[in-house]
Amino acid sequence: MTGQGRDLIVDRFRVIMSEVPRFPEPGEYLFECGKMPFLHRIHLVFDEEIKLGTLIVADVPTAASQFLGMVNDAIFWPRFFLMSMTVSDERVSQVIDEAVITMLQRYGAPKKHESKRALT
After folding, report:
1. Is 72's pLDDT higher than 60?
2. Nearest partner of 67 among 32, 38, 34, 90, judged by Cα
3. What is the pLDDT of residues 82-102, one digit of tens each?
4. Class of residue 106 by CB neighbours under 10 A (exposed 0-12, middle 13-18, buried 19+)
5. Residue ranges of the alpha helices (H) in 53-112?
6. Got the DSSP string for 17-41?
7. Where are the domains of the chain?
8. d(CA 6, CA 46)
9. CB 16 within 8 A of CB 26
10. Whole-structure pTM value
11. Measured between alpha carbons, how far is 48 from 43 in angstroms, rounded to an integer?
């Protein structure tokens, strides 16, 4: 998505969020259609990696929320408070890469030649 497309989404989210106290339904819709699809996709990726033996995740919903939280905290939420903030595609890639590295450090399965003690 281009920067202009992202700006439009942020503007719409701001409007919906400002009206949630009076009109909760749009907020619920935004959550179900805005956030939940991302969490669902992350769940699917984690489930597949668990099956492949590359991740050890006891609580997939929590891990998915952690991952999305790292990305949202660095890219999405600051734009609600800093009107002039722009985020380049390179920055988005960097934030996602760093979040993946963090998740692999926490949930990555030990390699066959590594001791399981490395995770504790």
Report:
1. yes
2. 38
3. 777 888 889 999 999 999 999
4. middle
5. 60-71, 78-81, 89-107
6. HHHTTT-HHHHHHHIIIIIHHHHHH
7. 3-119
8. 26
9. yes
10. 0.72
11. 9
Average pLDDT, the chain: 84
Dihedral sign computed on CA atoms, order 99, 103, 109, 114: positive
CA-based nearest residue to 42, from 95, 89, 99, 109: 99
CATH 3.40.50.740 fits 3-119, yes or no: no
Q: How far apart are CA 7 and CA 76, in angstroms?
A: 10
117 pLDDT band, cuts 50/70/90, is very low
Measured CA to CA, the distance from residue 3 to residue 71 in angstroms comes to 16
Please say if the pLDDT value at position 115 is more than 90.
no
Using alpha carbons, list the distances in angstroms from residue 56 to 41, 51, 74, 98: 18, 9, 25, 19
